[in-house]
Specification:
Purple Acid Phosphatase, chain A, domain 2; 5'-nucleotidase,  domain 2; Immunoglobulin-like; 3 domains; seven-stranded mixed beta sheet; 37 strands; globular
Length: 715
């Protein structure tokens, strides 16, 4: 029942981006399509690495990228290189539709055929509890390793080893696994079982393997930052492969004398590292970048970097392993027949990628809106909350038909929907605590999706905060009690579970959402302004109006760069939809946004509108001062949802009304003076006096189903 940012969305603290740009002129010198030396050094060991299959046999968005083809390349590399071994880094049993259906049994059968030298256990291998995990480990014909998990009695997790050695040709390789220290909160791991410090566990493993192994490698399921620390602080460790984060390095890193290689997860990439056993240093390496040429748009280049070490491979040209194809068909045929039909038509793209950690998404809004329909309550459920990691397939769907398989891939966990009575104070605490602040591997993130609630969030200097929290469009009352719908995973690991549970629905999220969608013909969920990023709050905006427009001018943050993101600017009210400006310009440390006077006046006429001008600016790295372990400034912002930081300036609604009224009055006087003899008819519909129809009482985004804005549009 665990959700984590495995394939998260951004660069990490060493500022390596997973860029998959066009790669031309790649030399093909080996049977696998990679770059290989004519001769190999006599005393080498080669690691072919990365599994992280999430219980899938194929990519959720493209079935052509699949396990039979992936393994065909890995197996050929294993044959081609002396002293070669295939190593995995866990999260192989779940989460996915197949993982939920078979609880990892299908992957054990496939992996037994593939015969990896070892796999480092990951958090999702425990999603169905330690008893199921133990059974799966015990049925495996290869070792699972994890050095920093122990039972209450101090023993290794049953059917695993903390470390082991294996023979790779003439070389003896020592291997151990490590998992994140937050194991209790991200998977179904008992409270009385132990999670050890990763550096201390790694030192213990290296000490035990030293003398028995020619080469020592960690099959890592740590986040990027944590395994950097291990590499720097643990002597005698030759290599770290894989990660918990699913990041794609442009090239392996050398940290504290240890080679660290992260090449993504699932079926997008495969790594090949060849080391000199005499020195432990990395010699040759390749990163295979798999793609489907048939899915490329006209003129689109295949993935790959500008290095000859990045090897693009069209999967259409790879003959998949026949035995794995047979295993795949055995497990998928029945599910495809049962769930492969469309359940609804989406008029927009549905972004189920890891951007759900970073920004509000249409799919997140759709899921949480539906979660407020669970049960039969006399009053409407006030708020719904979905953890971003529970939106899982890392795929964009539509526009077009959405199948049952798609829905179950998006929501693959056995998480039951529950409803709690929760105080306003606890609700505020939850949304604040959910914010992931800088510094961190992935930048500032709200890390959840919500319905019925809106708020501003900030995450900097290791601290998080929220402001202007509204429930149903009204200010949150900390003394009030609210009905909150969420899943049992979230409730069991947060203050929500401290409230009174008033409903255990007995329904997993995937099947529930699928049933709800089957009742609709079409959907078109979009982003709104439920979670508003605020990096800097500046002085209130100045207001100037004329006949047709109102210009709001705000100061750019001190020491910020002059650049702004014009398309990101808007005025957000307490309720209803935001308003985008007609134009945006920046000069002399200020940004000016010009709006249609009638439209802005309608927002200002709402009772207590809480108007805010928000928009993007180019952050100054030196001002924020975030550095990596080498003391180098981190390029900002390291978050996939944004290319900018965001400022907020409050807007005085009375000043807007005064500006438009003054402009209208002046215009009327001028017209009366110059056209006093003309016969005119007054309609009484001057700017500032019309009905506020544009905001129509929609609170927290309940209007989403009928809007046609593409989900890839700006927030």
């Amino acid at each position: 029942m665990a959700e984590t940012p495995d394939a998260d969305e951004s660069e990490f603290t060493l500022n390596r981006r997973g860029l998959l740009t066009a790669a031309g002129g790649i030399a093909v010198a080996s049977a696998t399509g990679g770059v290989a030396s004519a001769t190999q050094p006599a005393n080498t060991v080669t690691l072919i690495h990365d599994t992280h299959f999430h219980g899938r046999f194929e990519d959720a968005g493209d079935a052509e990228l699949n396990l039979p083809r992936y393994f065909a390349v890995a197996d050929r590399l294993r044959e081609e290189y002396d002293n070669a071994a295939f190593i995995g880094n866990g999260d192989d049993l779940a989460p996915s539709l197949l993982g939920l259906e078979y609880e990892g049994r299908h992957m054990v059968e496939a992996l037994n055929y593939m015969q990896p030298a070892a796999i480092g256990a990951g958090n999702h291998d425990f999603d169905f509890g330690v008893e199921t995990a133990t059974n799966r480990f015990g049925n495996s014909e290869f070792p699972w390793v994890v050095a920093n998990l122990l039972t209450p009695d101090g023993e290794p997790v049953p059917e695993t080893q903390r470390w082991t050695t294996f023979e790779a040709g003439s070389a003896t390789v020592g291997v151990f696994g490590l998992v994140t220290e937050s194991f209790y909160t991200i998977t179904d791991y008992p409270d009385d079982w132990q999670v050890l410090d990763t550096v201390e566990a790694a030192r213990e493993a290296v000490a035990a393997l030293d003398g028995d192994a020619d080469f020592i490698v960690c099959a890592s399921h740590l986040s990027s930052g944590a395994q950097e620390q291990v590499a720097k602080e643990v002597d005698g460790l030759d290599a770290v492969v894989g990660s918990h984060s699913g990041i794609v390095f442009d090239e392996p890193a050398t940290i504290g004398g240890t080679t660290v290689a992260e090449f993504g997860d699932e079926f997008g990439h495969l790594g090949r590292l060849t080391f000199d056993l005499d020195t432990g240093e990395l010699g040759e390496w390749e990163r295979f970048d798999f793609y489907n040429a048939g899915a490329l748009d006209d003129g689109e280049s295949p993935p790959g970097g500008d290095s000859e070490n990045h090897v693009p491979r069209d999967v259409q040209e790879i003959t998949g392993d026949e035995e794995l194809a047979s295993i795949t068909q055995e497990y998928t045929t029945e599910l495809e027949e049962r769930l492969g039909q469309p359940v609804v038509e989406s008029e927009v793209k549905l972004n189920a990628t890891s951007e759900n950690y970073a920004v509000e998404t249409g799919i997140g809004n759709l899921i949480t809106d539906l979660m407020r329909d669970v049960g039969n309550f006399e009053t409407e459920i006030d708020v719904a909350i979905q953890n971003a990691g529970g939106i899982r397939s890392n795929t964009v769907y539509g526009p077009g038909p959405i199948t049952g398989v798609n829905v179950m891939d998006i929501l693959p966990f056995p998480n039951e929907i529950e409803v709690y009575e929760l105080s306003g104070a606890k609700l505020r605490q939850y949304v604040r605590d959910s914010v992931r602040p800088m510094p961190g591997d992935f930048g500032s993130q709200p890390a959840i999706q919500v319905s019925g609630i809106s708020y501003e969030w900030r995450g900097h200097d290791g601290e998080s905060s929220v402001e202007n929290v509204f429930v149903g469009g009204e200010p949150l009352d900390e003394e009030e009690t609210y009905l909150v719908s969420t899943n049992d995973y979230v409730a069991g690991r947060s203050v929500i579970g401290e409230g009174e549970r008033v409903l255990s629905s007995g329904q997993f999220q995937g099947p529930f959402v699928m049933d709800q969608l089957e009742e609709r013909d079409t959907i078109s969920p979009t982003r709104g302004h439920r979670m508003i990023r605020v990096d800097e709050t500046v002085e209130p905006a100045t207001v100037e109006g004329d006949d047709d427009t109102v210009t709001l001018t705000a100061s750019l943050p001190t020491d910020a760069a002059e650049g702004v993101a014009p398309d990101s600017y808007r005025v957000i009210p307490r309720v209803g939809e935001s308003l985008t400006p007609e134009s945006v310009s920046a000069t002399d440390g200020t940004v000016a946004a010009t709006f249609d006077a009638t439209e802005l006046t309608e927002l200002a006429e709402i009772d207590d509108p809480t108007l805010r001008l928000v928009g993007g600016f180019d952050p100054d790295e030196e001002h924020y001062g975030y550095t990596n372990d080498e003391g180098e400034l981190i390029e900002l912002p390291p978050s996939s949802g944004y290319d900018y930081h965001q400022l907020k300036a409050s807007v005085d609604a009375s000043a807007v009304l005064e500006a438009t009224a003054t402009a209208t009055s002046t215009d009327d006087e001028t017209e009366a003076t110059t056209d006093s003899d003309a016969e005119t008819e007054t309609t009484g519909n001057q700017p500032g006096f019309g009905a506020a129809a544009a905001v129509g009482g929609a609170a927290g985004g309940a209007y989403l189903y009928d809007r046609l804005t593409d989900d890839d549009s700006a927030e």
